[in-house]
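Q: Please design a sequence for this.
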């Protein structure tokens, strides 16, 4: 996308301006969104974004800017603007010659936006979901469904001679159903995603999707108030992993570790969780929503064992994080687009499967809460203190799942919760999400098997 001769001139110019390291991130993204609401096409939109990010590193200080132009003068102007207060070098070696590295695409895609299907081949799926959902109950008052598809082409150059490129294809479905009964109103949502093309949507069953979201919405209509207090809690698999992601995962990124803003910054090799807990951040999982072939600094992605049998074994490390902490890079540098400098971020982050059986976990509790489906929440970045809403929860009484409850929330800290996990099921599952941080919003997968936390503060509802 960018002429390599221009890239080298820009990098050499930056070195003359005193930078110790320079990289260019060339980024072109194509978008398409289709949505159906009230049984009609609600939106069809598409577009292309292009830009080039330029990062200059002086010691461990980062200067970052970007432009939407490939023109050499415009790129040099960005370097000038960034380095205006830096000392110019009189004698400086040129950057190394580029050695193009071709990456192996580990994620087979058939129908990305560059090999696209027609709208007539896509929109019927949304109408099928709408019709199947409405047909299941007269209490369903509204259905909306959307498909978001994105193709990203990147090219990276740096002053160490790296030149590489990659193409990434992502797709995500979103379905929302609203159920009403008198003055009671509840909704449910389903939003799977993958590093694939439209073949991912074609692999889904509209009827199964509809049955699941309608069942959830109708069940919640009859929910009773959730009791409050400290009690044992079972957090189900899949999106239950959002608590580990938010309350613990961010504390293991060198973004916070390097600043000693994480309670784990000096705990490497120490026990930080129950011995039942092993956790991973893995960018290599085939066609997963949070996967990448290379990170946004051009390093091949990998599987990173964060916690093993309760022991902290690794952080997630980008180039700057490595320079500041001394830990080896893990292929974890990510950013939303060219407008952001990269930093250490999660990819597919999950607690590994255990050997316990879900039924045994339920039967082990006399009185507690089963959180089947987690929602959003708030987290304190430095301590991992969290407050998460549970979208679908049930009472556990005498070892049995009982009434659906409303208003349940989980309150605690990530580090404390990790130590109180006493059982981990064998039903590992994953869910797609978008994680926001200093380098923007990036695709991440959260995951876990069902886990039992022996004690956690549950906030109740009316």
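A: Design:
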């Amino acid at each position: 996308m960018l002429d390599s001769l221009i890239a080298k001139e820009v990098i050499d110019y930056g070195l003359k301006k005193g930078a110790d390291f320079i990289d260019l991130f060339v980024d072109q993204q194509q978008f398409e969104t289709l949505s159906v609401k009230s049984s009609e096409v609600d939106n069809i939109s598409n577009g292309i974004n292009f830009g080039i990010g330029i990062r200059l590193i002086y010691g461990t200080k980062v200067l970052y800017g970007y432009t939407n132009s490939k023109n050499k003068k415009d790129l040099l102007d960005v370097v000038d603007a960034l380095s205006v207060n830096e000392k110019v070098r009189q004698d400086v070696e040129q950057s190394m010659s580029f050695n193009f590295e071709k990456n192996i695409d580990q994620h087979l895609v058939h129908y990305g936006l560059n090999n696209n299907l027609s709208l007539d081949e896509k929109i019927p799926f949304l109408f099928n979901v709408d019709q199947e959902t409405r047909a299941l109950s007269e209490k369903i008052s509204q259905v909306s469904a959307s498909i978001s598809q994105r193709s990203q082409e990147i090219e990276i150059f740096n002053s160490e001679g790296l030149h590489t490129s990659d193409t990434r294809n992502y797709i995500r479905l979103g379905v929302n159903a609203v159920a009403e009964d008198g003055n009671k109103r509840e909704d449910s949502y389903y939003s799977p995603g993958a590093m694939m093309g439209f073949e991912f949507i074609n692999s889904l069953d509209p009827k199964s999707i509809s049955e699941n979201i309608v069942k959830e919405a109708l069940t919640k209509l009859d929910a009773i108030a959730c009791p409050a207090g400290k009690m044992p809690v079972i957090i189900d698999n899949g999106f239950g992993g959002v608590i580990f992601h938010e309350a613990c995962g961010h504390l293991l990124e060198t973004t916070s570790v390097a600043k000693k803003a994480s309670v784990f910054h000096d705990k490497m090799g120490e026990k930080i969780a129950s011995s039942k807990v092993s956790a991973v951040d893995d960018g290599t999982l085939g066609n997963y929503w949070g996967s990448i072939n290379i990170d946004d600094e051009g390093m091949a992605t990998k599987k990173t064992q964060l916690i093993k049998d309760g022991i902290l074994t690794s952080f997630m490390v980008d180039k700057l994080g490595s320079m500041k902490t001394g830990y080896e890079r893990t292929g974890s540098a990510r950013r939303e687009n060219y407008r952001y400098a990269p930093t250490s971020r999660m990819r597919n982050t999950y607690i590994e499967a255990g050997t316990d059986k879900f039924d045994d976990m339920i039967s082990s509790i006399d009185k507690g809460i089963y959180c089947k489906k987690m929602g959003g929440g708030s987290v304190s970045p430095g301590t991992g203190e969290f407050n998460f809403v549970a979208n679908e929860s049930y009472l556990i009484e005498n070892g049995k799942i009982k009434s659906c409850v409303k208003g349940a929330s989980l309150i605690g800290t990530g580090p404390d919760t990790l130590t109180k996990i006493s059982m981990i099921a064998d039903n590992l599952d994953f869910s797609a999400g978008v994680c926001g941080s200093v380098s923007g919003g990036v695709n991440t997968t959260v995951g876990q098997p069902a886990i039992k936390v022996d004690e956690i503060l549950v906030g109740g509802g009316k």
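Q: Thanks. Anything notable?
A: Residues 135 and 428 are 32 Å apart (CA to CA). The two ends are 57 Å apart (CA to CA).
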